[in-house]
Specification:
Strand order of the largest sheet: 4-3-2-1-8
Order of helices and strands: EEEEHEHHEEEHEEHEEE
Number of strands: 13
Number of helices: 5
Strand content: 15-25%
Radius of gyration: 27 Å
Distance between the termini: 43 Å
Largest sheet: 5 strands, antiparallel
Shape: globular
Length: about 260
């Protein structure tokens, strides 16, 4: 289902995308965030209690979440919508829950079906001219190139196997650091020395502060810097804030990318 929010943002609940035609920006929401936004858009401004949202967005889909998780996802929705110039779509109801701001327009968008698409007229091909009786058409049989094709396929397979081995070799090691104050675990997708861990944790703290994030005991952070062979400072930093289930399994993650190194 597609919705038009504030006459300028297109939301597709099928893939969780927010599209802003004015700047061509696209934001992909996680599955829980997409379900939560659709609940607000379908509510017609009714008061939505916290228990109702936890049940419809998480419990009915076999997931577990807490009030802190709900607050985080509402904060993420507000921040993403604000990036697309839509503010105050979600209103907080103290001690109750949330509701949709009815002063901001929300309209379902009808999708175009195949029947509504006008057929494209085709230009008829000119009639073929018959060959003269004395004309002979000789088609040369294609030369067999079986051996070069086989060699090329083997080369591609060997290169792919080497790339997979190299990727696994580079990602086998990781470092897990527990934040002393919050008890939140930070997983670095590479081996980090004890001397480097303090600076790495400071980088994580800077990104969390910049994006207004908070890591609690039922969260885990996955952090990675992508390696590059370029001398330019264009390497990408990834931080994933993930929600853990009852058995400490990862339920969902929100990803934040930075295309310059974050220095403490």
């Amino acid at each position: 289902m597609k919705y038009l929010i504030d006459n300028k943002i297109e939301f597709n609940s099928d893939d969780g995308s927010l599209f802003y035609p004015a700047s061509k920006d696209i934001i992909k929401l996680t599955l829980p965030a997409s379900r939560l936004l659709e609940e607000f858009l379908l509510s017609d401004g009714r008061d939505l209690t916290r228990d109702y949202l936890l049940e419809t967005v998480w419990d009915r889909h076999g997931l577990q979440a807490s009030g802190n998780n709900l607050n985080q996802y509402v904060s993420i929705l507000r921040r993403n919508l604000a990036m697309l110039d839509c503010h105050e779509l979600i209103v907080t109801l103290p001690k109750v829950g949330f509701r949709l701001n009815t002063s901001i327009s929300v309209m379902p968008v009808a999708e175009t079906t195949q029947q509504e698409i006008a057929p494209v007229p085709r230009t008829p091909l000119p009639p073929s001219q018959p060959l003269a009786p004395e004309t002979r058409v000789v088609t040369a049989a294609p030369k067999k190139k079986t051996l070069p094709v086989i060699l090329l396929a083997l080369t591609v397979l060997c290169a792919a196997a080497f790339g997979l081995w190299k990727y696994q070799d580079d990602h086998d090691e990781k470092t897990v650091v527990t934040h002393k104050e919050s008890g939140c675990e930070v997983i670095f997708l590479k081996d980090i020395s004890e001397r480097r861990q303090k600076d790495a944790m400071q980088e994580v703290a800077n990104i969390m502060k910049k994006n207004g994030l908070q890591c609690l005991k039922d969260n885990v952070i996955i952090y990675n810097r992508e390696v590059t062979v370029s001398n330019l400072d264009t390497r990408r930093t990834l931080l994933s804030l993930c929600v853990l289930g009852k058995n400490r399994e990862i339920i969902s993650c929100d990803n934040f990318y930075h295309y310059k190194w974050i220095k403490p």
